Amino acid sequence: PGTPVCQELQRCWVFHTQQFPLCIKSGPPPKGHPANLTQLWEALESTWASIPVESFRHLVESMYELRIRYLPKGFLHHFSEDKPTLNYFYQQVKNDYMVEIADQVEQDIALKLGCLEIRRFFREMRGNALDKKSNYELLEKDVGLRRFFPKSLLDSVKAKTLRKLIQQTFKQFANMNDDQSILKFLEILAPVYRYDKECFKCALGLSWVIQVELAIGPEEGISYLTDKGSTPTHLANFTQVQTIGYSVMEDKERKGMLQLNVAGAAEPLTVTTPSLTTAENMADLIDGYCRLVNGVTQSFIIRPQKGCCVSTETDDYAEIIDEDDTYTMPSSKFISPSPARDYEIQRDRIELGRCIGEGQFGDVHQGVYNSPENPTLNVAIKTCKNCTSDSVREKFLQEALTMRQFDHPHIVKLIGVITENPVWIIMELCTMGELRSFLQVRKYNLDLSTLILFSHQLSTALAYLESKRFVHRDIAARNVLVSSTDCVMLGDFGLSRYMEDSSYYKASKGKLPIKWMAPESINFRRFTSASDVWMFGVCMWEILMYGIKPFQGVKNNDVIGRIENGERLAMPHNCPPTLYSLMTKCWAYDPSKRPRFTELKTQLSTILEEEKAQQEERLRMEMRRQVTVSWDSGGSDEAPPKVLPPHLMEERLMMQQQQMEEDQRWLEQEECFLHVAPPKKPPRPGAPSHLGSLASLNPVDSYNEGVKVHNTSPRQPCLNVLLQGHHHSNTSPRQPCLNVLLQGHHHSNTSPRQPCL
After folding, report:
1. For residue 377, what is the domain's CATH number?
2. What is the per-residue pLDDT across 356-411, written as a single tens digit (0 to 9) for each?
3. What residue numbers does the annotated binding site for ATP cover?
4. Catalytic: which of 284, 474, 492, 663?
5. Distance in angstroms (rounded) separating the CA atoms of residues 228 and 192
6. 723 within some domain
7. pTM for this one?
8. Are 424 and 418 within 8 A, CB to CB?
9. Which residues fall in the annotated binding site?
10. Which residues form the Protein kinase domain (predicted)?
């Protein structure tokens, strides 16, 4: 077709054949045209001759933008060999700069970038042309400075001053050609605007608790940042991505979900996005890079069927149905009475906030409880989607009835309930989300002692439940919440049961976490404190594995066979042998041979103290190494060692003080050995008797051998002897101290060691 748009597309088709596809951005297209970027990209992969001109008329009407989106490593080198591509990419980056950040950059950078564009735009102009007033006025009036410089710069600088600044800055680039101007522009812009990557606000996992910024580009591959300015954490290279999927989630906000199968990863990489459009956009971007890096044309995307939604429920739970579940809450003689009205909260005191996760019955929201005692208490609010029937409402409130019995620093506290529809359960808010996501995001910032601390805190909570005769039945990292960086809390008591007359509880109906369960629970639905111990061992393994789920790739039906064949989860990397030995005791097939939670709590406390002691010893060894390096370096220009913790710094100063005292005692001993009665008269300068006495004191002088002694001070002979003695007593830490003492003595004549020195 001969329309200008199609001619432009035809000209740009070379980019696609070179694996530099073009992204097209727009608002909603007219009816009957491609509805999203994916469909339009698929259309662009067709032959141009087969696409009717009507298909492109809406491009002009909707102002679609053609963009080079997928960049290879070292793309500037590739583009420098293809001038049309380099110019196209430059115009794209320059327009982004002027629209998005030009008003925010420093004045010096804005001047340089603007002058480089002037140099490129007026390629035939001489380097000193702007010095002439007529040329500058022509640039200012006919072309306009707004084409080259941001509005903030033009408004903030006086016209006369601006003219001088532009003239001075332009001379720096006066001798550059087109390509040099473009490359210099991109070089100056790179530190303040990363035009080589795209970033997306999203969350790792299926919840929206820990938000990150996912960065996708040729250098980083796929990485994320938790805070602005933090170091990116690498997730995967494009060569590792095997398949890409995206879908819409079954929640009220209709969030999107992106899922990547990555080679070598224990489980798929799942990302929650604000919308399906964002998930689709990210999928196409990653797909383009994967095709570019692997040199293939076939897409890596497995596209969802029309109308298909994904449930946030995973295969962690398996359905069991034998007969009706007859469990009811125990009578008041076993549980201290606490009327429901004591926990009833007025709905107008609750401010419902954003959704932060999903529960078995509905969404979990962050909110604020305005109580008389605490006007702005942050809380978590569990909602129920289908609580119209009494049976569903009773099951939903069962968790609240369980939680009201507990008061422990590592168990999530119940704040209150709203029993009228819609039914809400208000709980203590743990701002850092679920433990599994926390471990995955903070993997490189958590040391071993912190992981053991989390395990110990959970053991104290479970020992408390054991003393209350409750079984939790769902102990896993996903059900542990993080209150702070050094405090976790056990939550989700939806499966918890009270053991009244019997020592066990038998499940008959519901969904159970097979891969975390003890063999007697899988085979006979039998749950006891001993089965909770097994699950706690699996949870400890999850913590030491930074959130990886157990039995990856194994079907729920196959788990019991592996357990009965003696297979157990492997020891995590860097796990202390004593801790793994404790895990294996939790996984004893015979429930009677498993330790109780009171024993686990004690043993974990011991392991934690041992790890802390080893950690401090490692720090002390590092501190001693730094002390030795600092003494041995003398007057070198090397950077000082890193700042140590206060208690180790105090220990280091005490060690230095002790060394100084030892050096002082050593000097005093040397003075006693070398003490000689002073002559009646000061020795005549140059007298041979002085040299003779010096030789008699130390006949073998290898340190000063062949060196002529300059007799400039009566203290010089003894000083030489001290230096000789120090040379032969090769104690490296004394040398700097000796120098300091000698320098101090040189400036002060009040020392008791004056006769010797």
Report:
1. 3.30.200.20
2. 777 667 778 888 988 877 778 888 888 887 766 777 777 778 878 888 888 899 99
3. 382
4. 474
5. 13
6. yes
7. 0.56
8. yes
9. 382
10. 350-608
